[in-house]
Amino acid sequence: MNYIQSSQNSTLKEIKALHLKKNRDSQGLYFVEGIRFVNDAIDNGQVISKVIVSDKLEGLNGGSELIEKVKGVCSDISLVPEKLFKEVSDTQTPQGILAVLEKNQFDFQEVIEKGNSVVILDCLQDPGNAGTIIRTADAAGISAVLMSKGCVDLYSPKVLRSTMGSVFHVPIFEGLNITETIQLLKQKGYKVIASHLSGKNNYFQEDLTGRSAIIVGNEANGISDETANMADSLVKIPMPGKAESLNASVAASIMIYEIVRQKVM
Known about the structure:
Layout (H helix, E strand, L loop, with lengths): L1 E2 L6 H8 L3 H7 L1 E5 L1 H9 L4 E7 L8 H9 L5 E4 L1 H7 L8 E6 L5 H7 L2 E5 L5 H14 L3 E5 L8 H7 L8 E5 L1 H10 L3 E5 L5 E2 L9 E5 L8 H6 L2 E4 L11 H17 L1
Parallel strand pairs: 1-4, 3-4, 6-7, 6-11, 7-8, 9-11, 9-12, 10-12
Antiparallel strand pairs: 2-5, 3-5
Helix pairs in contact: 3-4, 7-8, 7-11
């Protein structure tokens, strides 16, 4: 294990650079923090480029065990003083471990060919919403999450934390052209539905027992008119109360679990 004492160390500079999307994109790397998150990365076979640990980690519950576990999958491990660790951390109260991972690579055509249900995020901007939808999709056994151009960055620390590790379980594709994506899904037999103010049927009146794709729109503007026109069906979620709308992740979860209900029943 290397010992780093200077904030000018090249390893720390590399990790600090990964706080910016452009550097994550150019290097194909991102980082995760915390005992549980790093444990999940190891357990799910993620490729770990390097790890830094603070000198307080061994004193935390599970800290020593995790250090030994990390040694089995990564040779580039550095120990740093707690003060330096806080300089590269993205959390208010860091647990003292950070791992740099390689981005997962999936074959888009293969995933769509083999899949049965997908969720499309159309310019979704809120990190919490994106992460929650990914987590829900994972829990529901959704085949993939497809993120259009203009969506929040999947690998931003806030999105990653919101996924609670589900980013390791479900194929996720970023920066997609939504028009081309919907066209491809239709060619492969997916029924494309979206919640929309113009929806006539309730979401549970749609037949979702076959291949299906749910579109989740932008928090402020919903799905674009062009996207709405491409959908096979626009649906509504009944709201007999006084609220005018639902949170994007809540609406997505309701429709995702309708797919589960129909397929199970």
